[in-house]
Amino acid sequence: MDAQSDLSTTDRLIKIGEVLKICALSRSWVYAAIRNHEFPAQVKQSKRSVAWSQKEVLEWVSKRKALR
Q1: Where are the domains of the chain?
Q2: What is the chain's alpha carbon radius of gyration, rounded to the nearest angstrom?
Q3: What is the pLDDT confidence band of residue 27, given thresholds at 50, 70 and 90?
Q4: Pairing label, strands 13-14, 49-53
Q5: What does the pLDDT look like over 52-65, one tens digit per residue?
Q6: DSSP string over the chain
Q7: Please, which of 14, 26, 38, 61 could form a disulfide with 33 given CB 3.0 to 4.6 Å?
Q8: pTM of the entire predicted model
């Protein structure tokens, strides 16, 4: 198995910019949805840094598509 396929099968942490690109939503919508428990919560990385589970974000997108 090569390094590229290893990355595609592992869950990685992604920053807000990538979350916004994947979901095509605004930053304010994402944070409001987190407060309303409608979007995956972020993972605290350090005192001033957060990220999201790529797997959880992609699952959220899949669920939204299924609701169509």
Answers
A1: 3-66
A2: 13
A3: very high
A4: antiparallel
A5: 999 999 999 999 99
A6: --HHHHHHHS--EE-HHHHHHHHT--HHHHHHHHHTT-SPPPEEEETTEEEEEHHHHHHHHHHHHHT-
A7: 38
A8: 0.82
